[in-house]
Amino acid sequence: MDEIFRSIKRTGGAFALQLVPDLVKFILKFKNRIIQPYVRKRYSMQREKALKKYGQFGKTELHELFRNIGLNNASTLFVMSSWDSMHTFSGNPYDVIDVLLNVIGSKSTLCMTAFPPLKISKNFEVFDVRHDPSKTGLITEYFRRIDGVIRSRQLRSVCAFGPEARFLTESHHLSPFTCGVKSPYWLLREIDSYFLLLGLFPSTYVLNLHCVEDVLCDDFPICVYPPEPNQITVIDYDGRPLNVKAYRLLSHMDFKMKSVAPIMSQYFEDLFLIKGIYKGIPYSLVKIKPWTDRVIQLARKDIHAFGNKFPEPEETIKLITQ
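RE: above sequence
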């Protein structure tokens, strides 16, 4: 590492770009040797603590929990999950999906995110709908692999299974705004849909906050995107390449949103149908339409996840819902 900095100083930065691969190798070595062992140790300690306090439970209890919170009434269910938080569940990710499908029934649709880890080929980012894994959690990757699941062809990809799957996914790639009016995140608002957060606390959930900048576009209070969208090559189900455009948040805006999301969560407390913790696993349920409408209403008052203005929630909600 010292050699890298000495070279940059000696050459005035002229050849600094040549040293980027060495810098990346150093960071990866640091990650592999120090950060990953720490994360594994912490995960092991959390799991041991949860098992000692709550014990384990299986598919039967999970089925009962999902019915008790009303998932059997959901015609379309969008699930955000964290398998790493489900320490006390004795099954595997397929078991979670099986129980979800069993509870909502064959006439309902199940959806999950499936963001791809993009590859670089001939200076273009490439996304293979058929084979690229989901990087948004282990449960989502297991879901992606199930026969009959349809995956949308855009950066913030969504997988869906059931009667509304094609409606929700087929137009996602037609707009560069990945959470805009052609995306599953907005289309879920048009049908009787619910969010289930499983293994996640509401204050960590940010995804549907993105709808606001993509739906309002030029009417959004600030600029969060670069002038031009990225060009993505999407390999479709039939193996043909599609040229897809996709806006990415400016890096400082992405950081800002993630840091502000817990503050924004205070404006949605009244919308949750149910919140709880079952044997150490947090869960919550909310209807998508009022949630998304609230995000839009707040943004029109210049209250959003990229801003610095966060007035008192109770009075603000009264004001925007009048």
